[in-house]
Amino acid sequence: MGRKEAMCAELGMYSEKYALPAETTQEELVALVEKLNCDDKIHGILVQLPLPDGLDEKAVINTINPEKDVDAFHPVNVGKIMIGDYDFVPCTPAGIMEMIDESGMEVEGKHCVVIGRSNIVGKPMSMLLLHKNGTVTICHSRTKNLKEITKTADILVAAVGRSHFVTADMVKEGAVVIDVGMNRLENGKLTGDVDFENVEPVAGAITPVPGGVGPMTISMLMKNTITA
Ligand code: NAP
After folding, report:
1. E strands within the chain?
2. Would you say the CB of residue 192 lies under 6 angstroms from ligand 1?
3. What is the rounded CA–CA span in Å between residue 183 and residue 12?
4. Best of 123, 140, 191 to mutate for ligand 1, by most ligand atoms within 8 A of CB?
5. Which residue of 84, 98, 118, 136 lies most exposed, with the fewest beta carbons within 10 A?
6. 94 CB under 6 A from ligand 1?
7. How many Cα atoms occupy the beta-carbon half-sphere of 222 within 13 Å?
């Protein structure tokens, strides 16, 4: 059983899993999403991404009823996040905000630096920090002087997808460092984007990988489903 299914079972939440064959066509996948859109037993639909080559991810996401879009990837929900009036937030940024809130950390007025601008993590993360009145800088692969920028971060979110990308010399003393990365090393070990061992002594607070952002993401998926 996958982790999402197991969490549903633990919470007593009904779930259906469709492990479709690789040769599934666009039409078949869209038809399944449409069927689930109309199924009153189903309140949340999650299409596991990325889809195999040949399938149009955007078209599939656009088929999901926005009210059942518990991943918050549908353009309607993306737009709602932009204007700050939303029901669902993409699960990874939502989990990070939950950690920040729970720890009593203030975002207002802080310099928040997000490394990564993906639709799944970087962009929504930046919007949520902005809605909390953080001063947000978004960095990406074309950013110049990355280290100079990250050095000024009070809150640093790393969503790059590269093991040990954030090193101690990139972090301000006492900064909050949130590691979104989930990188599989050749030996099978899971690591984040942050050089945890060397950054931890510099940081005021830091999330580990595994065990930090990852488990929060699944919890937020469950929360979005209950909201739906
Ligand atoms: P992605 O779509 O590949 O985005 C990576 C971002 O990093 C891009 O915006 C890219 O910039 C930027 N980047 C790459 N190299 C860089 C560099 N040298 N300097 C500065 N920025 C650089 O990845 P993602 O989906 O956002 O995921 C990021 C990481 O988070 C991955 O390890 C993924 O597995 C992990 N993740 C974890 C969870 C969780 O639940 N914990 C959930 C989702 C993702 P450009 O836009 O310029 O290419």
Report:
1. 111-115, 135-139, 155-158, 176-179, 183-184, 190-191, 205-206
2. no
3. 31
4. 140
5. 84
6. no
7. 17
* Ligand 1 site, residue 122, Cβ cutoff 6 A: yes
Count the residues in the chain: 228
Q: How far is CA 57 from CA 63, 67, 195, 224, in A?
A: 10, 19, 33, 21
Q: Residue 133 in contact with residue 109, Cβ under 8 Å?
A: yes
CB 220 within 8 A of CB 46: no
DSSP state of 156: E
For the stretch 58-91, pLDDT in tens is 999 999 999 999 999 999 999 999 999 999 999 9
Using CA atoms, how far apart are residues 17 and 152, in angstroms rounded to an integer? Answer: 44
Cβ of 181 less than 6 Å from ligand 1: yes
Which residue, by CA, sits nearest to atom 13 of ligand 1?
141
CA distance 116 to 127: 13
pTM summary value:
0.95
